[in-house]
Amino acid sequence: MIPFDIGTQRERNQHIGAERFTTPNEVVAHLCAIQAQDFLGALWAIGVRMRNATEAAVEQALQQRRIVRTWPLRGTLHFVAAEDARWMLDLLAPAVMSRHAARLEREHGITEPMLKRSRAAVRRALAGGGALTRSASYEVLDKARIPTAGGRGLQIVWQLAHEGLICFGPRAGKQQTFVLLDDWLPASSGQISRDEALAKLARRYFTGHGPATIADFVWWSGLPVSDARKGLELARPYLEQEKDHWFAPLPDGRPSQRIHLLPPFDEFTVGYKQRGDVLDPRFARRVNNGGGMLQAVVIAAGRVVGTWKRTLRPDSVDITIAPFRPLTRKETREVDEACNRYAEFLGMKVESVSCV
Asked: What global pTM score does this model have?
């Protein structure tokens, strides 16, 4: 029997470096949501968990509306599977909007009458399958005498996305666009009850992220503790428990023995309240130095062993590794292999790999 180790079990349950999944939507559905404020990094978060992945294939899944980028939980951008977007917004967005309602008016002067005019202006501009970049969306609002300066535009867009009016659509060059959610993802038949949604969210979280605690689930989902506990209770028949950690029955096979490069804000580091199970506290500030930023990390055997950065050239990439300890000769070879896998995902070659 494989000893119970939280880091390696999370690596297995998150399917990092595994080859079970062959499509981006399979990966996203398994994890339920993948944090995606760093858009290009989030593409690799999907790629590192599927077979023969390419950046173009992940973007194609977005174009084909199999996955969607929006604000489904914690008020933060995520990728979710198309079929999950609506029930997750219905379950999680109202509490987020309620917490931020007073701030919107106090700090940004955004009132309900202003939001009503914003909804009407955006709906008119996007009707019939339209798509607008963020700057073009702000122009629509400004022309409707809804000022967007000083961050007000982003706050309005954030609110409309939480309400389920808009989501991200196709890219226009390098620019993200907004579309009407009802145009982009036609409504599915029927709604699920709140209890069904809580059970589904809990089961999917502990399946894709386990072993994890109830505190981890509260952090990741943004649910009140009472709702999180109710969801876990409803999902208990499908889960196993080791002390205070919950998880689904583990997939067959042993954890990958290779080193992996994970992007900033990867679910392996961001999906839990505490990171001490996978990250030595001595190096915590090298991964998160404040300001809400999480660095791209190097993992080995379920532990964070360093950080990394990339520099893109026209057809190649330079990768710089900052290990927390000296690497063995075997690990150095595995780092090179991991860098090559990342370059292949980009459709490039590795120009150089250096350690600092």
From this structure: 0.95
